[in-house]
Design a protein that fits this description.
Translation Initiation Factor IF3, about 190 residues, about 25% strand, 8 strands, protein biosynthesis, 4-stranded mixed sheet, initiation factor, Translation_initiation_fac_3, Translation_initiation_fac_3_C, elongated, 2 domains
Length: about 190
């Protein structure tokens, strides 16, 4: 006679019973007999409402997907012979990406003779990593990949991502204050004439 280890609807152990008795108990309780561990000896079956079980497991899966954090990798491309102002602009982008909680892939593109000087790229990536070390850390150190050198920066775990709001009121005020504080240069009147 085939037998199963039966678990009741509330998780209590009923014991080892014949399959016919287990099916009869399921019909009397208006529940389903579900095999939960087929490889065990004897197999383990549970009395449950299978439709309700499927619904609750789908709800849990949906809730876990909702709570998942989607990792976005942004990319910033640089050249080894970058001007200081351009570097500051690119650094500002990297800072913004890290503040929003995104990873940043920094790529340095080498062309022609620049490929024989990879230390320029290493120095530039090291400088960038030091400039943003309060917001993120180097997840993947600088590696040469053909004509490109790649480094990945990730935000610190304890850093709360800034919301991606479109209201620029605070930014406009700060920009206005900065513009007021800048000295105004007088136009040059002493232009040399021929």
């Amino acid at each position: 006679m085939p037998e199963v280890r039966l678990v009741g609807p509330n998780g209590e152990q009923v014991g080892i019973v014949r399959i016919e008795d287990a099916l009869r108990l399921a019909q009397e309780a208006d529940l389903d007999l579900v095999e939960v561990a087929p490889t065990a000896r004897p197999p383990v079956c549970k009395l449950m409402d299978f439709g309700k079980f499927k619904y609750e497991s789908a709800q849990k899966a949906r809730e876990s997907r909702r709570n998942q954090v989607l990792t976005v990798i942004k990319e910033q491309k640089l050249r080894p012979k970058i001007d200081s102002h351009d570097y500051e602009t690119k650094k500002r982008n990297v800072v913004r990406f890290l503040e929003h909680g995104n990873k940043v892939k920094v790529t340095i593109m080498f062309r022609g003779r620049e490929q024989s000087r990879p230390e320029l790229g290493f120095r530039l990536l090291k400088r960038l990593a030091e400039d943003v070390q309060d917001l993120g850390f180097v997840e993947s150190s600088a590696k040469q990949d053909g004509r490109n050198m790649i480094m990945v920066l990730a935000p610190h775990k304890n850093l709360k991502p800034k919301p991606k709001s479109t209201s620029a009121n605070s930014d406009d005020e700060a920009g206005t204050e900065a513009a007021v504080e800048l000295p105004i240069e007088a136009p040059a009147d002493n232009v040399a004439q021929d």
